[in-house]
Amino acid sequence: MRMEVHLHADIPMLEGVSKKQIEQAVAPLLDYLDAEGMADVKSLEPEEPGLRYDEKELMFLMCWTGEIGRSFHPALASALDNLGPLCYEAVEVELTLYLDNGEQESRLLFVGPTAHAIHEAQRRCMIEDVSALLARQFGKEQVAEVTALVDRLFEQDWKEHATEVKKPERAFETATRPSRKHLH
């Protein structure tokens, strides 16, 4: 079963990271897409650049729509895991799945240099999402109360993970997000 997806991210890279290093990191995704390099990754939407590295801005840009099969997710996960150590900071990667019934499902993946950096990016995104949602109905003080609680929950979650048996750090994590139409 094939499905259409959209992948979107602006990932800041460490100074000195080359295009070749990025292509090596995302090789599992390139292999899946049967592409020799990032320049070969063409989007179904002509205005989308696909995958490219802006060496001047040190930014790896992902804006690609394509058809995928079942083995796409492991290839993407492996690519993000490889990419993590090259990242300057942790950021979100938006993955939108377009379902056969016309609906869409959005997921947030996080990529970054360390598990802690990813946890902080997840915290930042959650606080931004909760704040935006609550601001439609409540004032700044009420929103601040809730975001302070969210902040404490993330802090508690990190402390709990720190006391667990150490797992290898992952350079990416996944989360779900309410569906939003991505406008370009």
Q: Which of globular, elongated, flat, extended, rod-shaped describes the shape?
A: globular
Could you report the average pLDDT, rounded to the nearest whole number? 87
Strand order in the sheet with the most strands = 2-3-1-4-5-6
Radius of gyration from the CA trace?
A: 18 Å
The percent range for strand residues is 25-35%
The count of DSSP E runs of length 2 or more, i.e. the number of strands, is 6
Number of helices: 5
Describe this structure in words.
The protein is globular and about 50 Å long. α4 runs antiparallel to α5 (140-163). The longest helix is centred in the last third of the chain and has 24 residues, at 140-163. A six-stranded antiparallel beta sheet has the order 2-3-1-4-5-6. The protein has 184 residues and is an alpha+beta fold. It folds into two domains: 3-113 and 169-177, no CATH class; 116-163. β4 and β5 form a beta hairpin. The protein is 38% helix and 26% strand. It has helices at 19-25, 27-32, 72-83, 115-135, 140-163, and strands at residues 3-12, 50-54, 59-68, 91-98, 104-111, 172-177. The protein contains five helices and six strands, in the order βααββαββααβ.
Short description:
The protein is of the alpha+beta class and 184 residues long. 38% of the residues lie in helices and 26% in strands. It has two domains: 3-113 and 169-177, no CATH class; 116-163.
Give a topology summary.
Layout: E1 3-12, H1 19-25, H2 27-32, E2 50-54, E3 59-68, H3 72-83, E4 91-98, E5 104-111, H4 115-135, H5 140-163, E6 172-177
